[in-house]
Write a structure and sequence with these properties.
The protein is α+β, with helices and mostly antiparallel strands. 17% of the residues lie in helices and 39% in strands. It has 3 helices and 12 strands; from the N terminus they run E-E-E-E-E-E-H-H-E-E-E-E-E-H-E. The strands form 3 sheets. It has a 5-stranded antiparallel sheet with strand order 4-3-7-5-6, with helices on one face. The chain has a 5-stranded antiparallel sheet with strand order 9-8-12-10-11, covered by helices on one side. Strands 1-2 form a two-stranded antiparallel sheet. The chain is globular and about 40 Å long.
Length: 171
């Protein structure tokens, strides 16, 4: 499964399963690991986590992905890869060339605002999220008690997350 590795001074200090997985431990969402495509499935979930080869993490709504997110440039050309095959191929090639990681999931917080509906309040489970703060730092937050996606988003917004994607917990 695609993992999120947290690097500090060129050493891995934490690692967690990122992308949702099936019972067979295969990614259930789009998943690219160090430029290698693990799964091409694109679901309705709108969150993307990208990690470049330097360990920089960015969280985006799938409709806000731009070329510079994948190739490190200042190119702000949108990549509508869910609707356009040419952009989808460009994204795959750019991720491969950059040795990037990309995974999909439930976007919980976007631009500091809750981005998951209250209808996501029904199912409670143990949760884990990767969050991006306003200053560009990031963290992995683990919830040990069962909560809904909406409750998770409320807590993450309250602690100042600018972006947050729910992760597989392995439970």
């Amino acid at each position: 499964a695609l993992a999120v590795a947290v690097h500090e001074r060129a050493q891995v200090v934490a690692e967690a399963v990122g992308a949702y997985t099936t019972g067979a431990m295969k990614p259930a969402e789009i998943a690219i690991d160090s430029g290698e495509v693990k799964n091409l499935l694109v679901s309705r979930r709108d969150g993307l986590v990208m990690i470049d080869r330097d360990g920089r993490i960015r969280i985006r709504h799938r409709k806000e992905l731009v070329r510079g997110d994948l190739n490190g440039s200042s190119d702000q050309t949108p990549i509508s890869f869910f609707a356009d095959l040419a952009n989808f191929n460009w994204m795959l090639n750019a991720a491969k060339e950059a040795g990037a990681d990309l995974m999909g999931g439930h976007l919980l917080v976007n631009h500091g605002e809750i981005d998951v509906g209250t209808d996501s309040d029904a199912m409670r489970d143990k949760r884990r999220a990767i969050i991006e703060m306003k200053n560009g730092s990031f963290a992995i937050v683990d919830f040990s008690i069962p909560i809904s996606l909406y409750e998770e988003a409320m807590v993450l917004k309250k602690i100042g997350a600018q972006g947050a994607v729910n992760m597989d917990t392995g439970y």
